[in-house]
Every structure is written in C-alpha cells, then in structure tokens.
Amino acid sequence: MSRSTVPSKRSADAQEAAWVADEDRFVLQQAKKKAAIRVKGGRAQPVDWLAVTLAVIDPERNPLDDEIDADDLDLSAPETVFEGLDDAQLAELGKAIDTYLTLESSKSNHEYWNMMKTICNDRRKTSSDGQNTARGVSSVAADLDKLLGPKSLEELEKLEKQIRAKLASNEPIDTDYWDHLLKSLLTYKARAKLRKVSESILDARSGGLRKQQAAEAMALKSRLEARLQTQSNTLSGETSQNHTGASDLDRHPLDPEPLLRLRSEDKSLPSMTSVEFAQSITEDRRRILKVGFVPHRKRPGENGSEPVAKRSRTDGGDSTQSAFDREVARGLGENEELFTQEEEVVTKNRAQWAQQYRPRKPKYFNRVSLGYEWNKYNQTHYDHDNPPPKVVQGYKFNIFYPDLVDKTKAPTYRIERENGRKRGQTFAPAGEDDTCLIRFVAGAPYEDIAFRIVDKEWDYSAKRERGFKSSFDKGILQLHFQFKKIYYRK
C-alpha cells in the first residue's frame, strides 16, 4: 500500500507545482500589461518604466502580448528612473522590484531585476550616507568611485574574481576592507551592465530609425523627381507667355494680413507666453539629453480625421498597422477560415460629414469557425473516419477604426433580415440555413460595412470555450460569438 501511495503523492505534488507555476506566470503577465497601460495613460510608476524597458530588450517576449508599440515610447535610460526619488519612494520601488523577482522565471529577466535591486539599494544607502559626512563616508565613496568608476564590465568581473580569491585564501588580510570593496564592486558591476542595456536599446532603436528614415528619403526623392519632371515639361510653355505670368503675379495678394489671422481649427490649441515657451524648451532639452534617444513620430496633422484637402496619406497609421499585423500574425485556428464575404451596403442619405472628410471603408480581419454537427441523422450516416460536411459554428469579427473623429462614441452593429423575415422565422429550404446581414456602423470618416452570415441564435454564455466577446478598445471593434449548440436526446 505504501508503494502505491508514493507515486500518487509525487504526481499530486507535481500537479500542484505546475499549477503554482502557471498562476505565477499569469500574475506576471498581468503585472506587465498593467504597467504598459499605465505608461500609455501617463500614470506610470518608476517600476512600470523598468518593466516596459525590459519588455523592449527581452528576447523571449511574445510581441503579440504587447499592449503598446514600444517604438512610440520615449524610453529613458533605466538608471534615470532612480533620479529624484527620496528614501520612501526608493523603498516602495524596492518592494515592487521584489515582486517581479519572485514571479520571474527567465534567467536573463531575473538578472535584470537583480541589477535594478542592487542599484536601488545603493541609492538608498547613498541617501542615508549623505547625512553621515562627519564620519568620513563621503571621502571613502569618492575614493571607491575613482577606483571602480572608470573600469569596464570585463575589468570589474576580473577584479571580482581576484577579490573573491583573496577572501577565500588563508592570507592575513583586512577582511572588513575587502568585504566592503566587494560589495561596492557589485554595485558598480550592476551599473556597468545597466549601461550595456541602455546601449543595446539605443543601438536597436537607432538602427530601426535609420531604416525608416532611409525609406522615407527614397520616397521623398521619388516624389521630387516626378514633380521636377512635370515642371520641366511645362517650362517651355510658360516662358513663351511672360506677360501672362506677370499679370498673374500682379493678381496675387501680397498683404501678409490674412496670414496673421487665426484659423478656426487653431483656436482650440493651447496658448502660452514666450517665457513659458522658453521654459518648456529648456525642460525638453534637459530631458532629451538624459533620454539619449527620442522616437520619430508622425506629425499631429497626419491623422485620419483631417479634411480631404489636407490629407495625402492612406488609411491607417503605424499603430493601426501594428495592431492589424498582430491580428494577422495570430493566424487561423484548427477549425477556422478567413471570412471576407463583404456585402454591398445601401445607404439612403449621404452622411453630412462626407463633405469634410473622405469616406472610406475600415480594414478588417475576420474568421469563421467551422465544425461538425453530430445530430441524429449524422450519427446514423457518418462516423469519425467518414465525418459529415462542416457547418458554420460562429464568427470572429475584428474591424479597425483608428481615426474616428469622435472617439467617445464606439462603433455599433445591427442585424438586418430581408423580405420582412423576423427573428426565429425560417424561409430557407429544408437542409439549408437562413442568412442575414450584420452591419457595422461608425462615425466619420468611416462608411458602413456589412457581411452575410448564417442566421442562428447566438450563445452569449460567459464560458471561456464559447468565446463571446464584444468590445471596442484601441480603435479595434471585436465581436466574437458562437451559435448555440442543439443537443439531441436519445
């Protein structure tokens, strides 16, 4: 009996350990997502910036789990996170770092948080030692900084081995001195590793920026060459009509007064005095010098809500494209297929905003779920080796609205049935399913879009395997649903 209980006990222990590991992994993932959300919302705590920085350099991370596009962030060097924090804030940061140390299972990520913990402890120690200058602490710290500060990471690692060997030997040495030197060396070693982390972030993002700028330069070159070619073709005609050109020049207004008038679309912009503007520039320069790298962003005018006369770009920006790419990268499930059966939308009245904005269809990436329906007929005529035809069991709609003018109003959807058919009524022949239109409606500058789907009763169950989801977040409308299963009693 004792022999039989030992394997079962081991199995139970292994299951419990696996469950605890899965729970820790889930808690860690949620903590990272919350940190990214706070960073995006401008509510970041110091530990949030450390977590986001790790997400950028973590080689094991899944890009599909990213809540924000790291290229859009003004990432600072990690050591600048500790600047300006008092002892209470450093203590709170230390506790938050301990939480990540407890949850992290990756060796490289654990080493990263150990570096942060070491630097945080050193900052706290430096803060407390600042009040003990009478005991000569500051002079000792200055001597250590002269000795260890200029050394590279490789030199510090070599010196660490020498100090550990000396402490392990039986030589008559000042143990307190060498212990103190070793502790200080570990702090400088963590700083050196952190500098390498900052350099890797800067190199990676600078390389991406160079590629982006090279592509933009080539595109600009092509446009300029095309424009110069067009101008050269019309140059001969213009030179033969100099008097006409002179008269045209006379008709152009030279009074700068219209340029000094404030346009209606600029009246809502914030205003500041010259002194405030100068202070803002000084603060921005100080921050940029510490950051070391500022990502390239689109100009404020380059958005989808800009009037037609001022827009020259196509649908979707970088954030939309990255979100669309994430959705495409998820691929198709085992029983899923792409769903692109878009239907023509009939609109009686043209939207009022169509005169100001260019109407356009939103991007989408939809899937249809297929499966077998084991009703009584299929159970009689088919088996698992010779299955029945697959039928539609649900849909996953992902519609992208990145440039809504009024972002406070979420897009909606509605079901439209033809020929006066009501919900629950069946007009289709035997063996076929009724269909209906699902129509997605949003505001400017997007047109309505519709798809033809099977008209069955939806399952609104909150069960995970049923997968009902209806949400609008980050410009993406997601509607995922399955049809209710019909159970046949024997």
TrEMBL record:
- Species of origin reads Pseudocercospora fuligena
User: InterPro entries, per this entry?
Assistant: Cactin_C, Cactin_central
**GO cellular component assignments:** cytoplasm; spliceosomal complex
- Domain named Splicing factor Cactin C-terminal is located at 353-490
**Residue ranges, compositional bias (Basic and acidic residues):** 248-257
Stretches of Polar residues bias are at 232-245
Q: Which residues form the Splicing factor cactin central domain?
A: 10-197
Q: Which GO terms describe its biological process?
A: mRNA cis splicing, via spliceosome
Transmembrane feature ranges: none
Instruction: Give the family this protein belongs to, as stated in its UniProt record.
Output: Belongs to the CACTIN family.
Q: Where is this region: Disordered?
A: 232-257, 294-323
User: Source organism's superkingdom?
Assistant: Eukaryota
Name listed for the protein in its UniProt record:
Splicing factor Cactin
